[in-house]
Amino acid sequence: MSARPVPVPDAASAPYWESAARHVLALARCARCGAFAVPPDQTCPHCHTTDPDFTYQPVSGRGTVRSWTVVRQSPLPGLSQEVPFVLVDVELDEQAGLRMIGRLLDGPDAAWRAGDRVRVAFEDVGSGVSVPAFVLGDGS
């Protein structure tokens, strides 16, 4: 049996994973235009600056399910005991078009559909390592 895979942060993603370990969703924000980017890249996908000087800022983690897929076969070693599970494509409230994919922790048998409200939750997958996921409801 393989252990569940864990993220391996690089210099650009370390602030994201450090925040996730504290159960805080923090996203990269361009210093030039103020738009969020998931994931951040060498250029800002909004203003196209090649010097976005991204900083990570906490966000609510609330959003709307836009699409989904049910994973029925283990895509990676260590996930075989997790299937089936649902991956949801969520548009976050903080910015139009700001989308993030994560596991729906309510499971594949929960009553949900596109347009449902979700909020961020965290899966603790290792010592000091948490991965953002989603649960049904907006938490307000």
Short précis:
The protein has one helix at 14-21; strands at residues 26-29, 36-37, 55-58, 62-71, 85-92, 99-104, 117-126, 129-136. It is mainly β.
Describe the structure.
With 140 residues, the chain is mainly beta. The protein is built from 1 helix and 8 strands. A hairpin with a 2-residue loop joins strand 7 and strand 8. The strands form 2 sheets. The chain has a 5-stranded antiparallel beta sheet with strand order 6-5-4-7-8, with helices on one face. Strands 2-1-3 form a 3-stranded antiparallel beta sheet, with helices on one face. Helix content is 6%, strand content 37%.
Structural class: mainly beta
| Helicity level | under 10%
Strand-residue proportion: 35-45%
- Element pattern in H and E: HEEEEEEEE
* End-to-end Cα distance: 40 Å
Low-confidence stretches: none
Mean pLDDT across all amino acids: 93
